[in-house]
Amino acid sequence: MAAKRLVVAGGSGFLGSRICKHASVRGWEVVSLSRSGEPQWDTVTASKERPGWASDVEWAKADILKPSTYKPYLKDATAVVHSMGILLEADYKGVVSGKESIISGLQRAFSSTKRGTQDPLNRGVGEELRPQESDGQLTYEVMNRDTAIALAQESSFEHVPTFVYISAAGGAPILPSRYISTKREAESIISQSLPDLRKSSHYPSRWVE
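The structure corresponding to this sequence follows.
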């Protein structure tokens, strides 16, 4: 019997790397997709040393905004996981770092709406996702919602049996409400627009190690 194959978008991140680890030690073939490829281990573990299980993972470089860079890895996958997202947008980070004024930065960070990409479900074949904010900012709408929708659609095109979306159980007082609302929007749109794709949403803060 062929080994099960898992593709993890965002596999070099803190949560994504743990998904890769748990799948690989259980005998799955695992592919991690991220712009960096293999992670800097001291950013996701307590050591700079490469853990033993990491040699069993393919650390592929891909851009989540450019489906053509990750589409080849979806072929023959048993499941695809979207574990990417952002906690803070550039406006909020700018305020914290002092690079942007408190008033303008927080006004923009806590805006009730921001633009995502063009409609991810109605892209042309091979068309990349284009952030629609005037400064090209990677908003919650882009990273938490539209990249997940596009990845789910591409997985459906490749007849991947299962798509897993890493959502969130809730936000925090310091986070704009759009952090959670964009994740809920992604869940809803994927469920309604791709009925033939078996979908599962998981909420990390509810997990017990």
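Residues 63-86+140-206 form a domain with the Rossmann fold fold (CATH 3.40.50.720).
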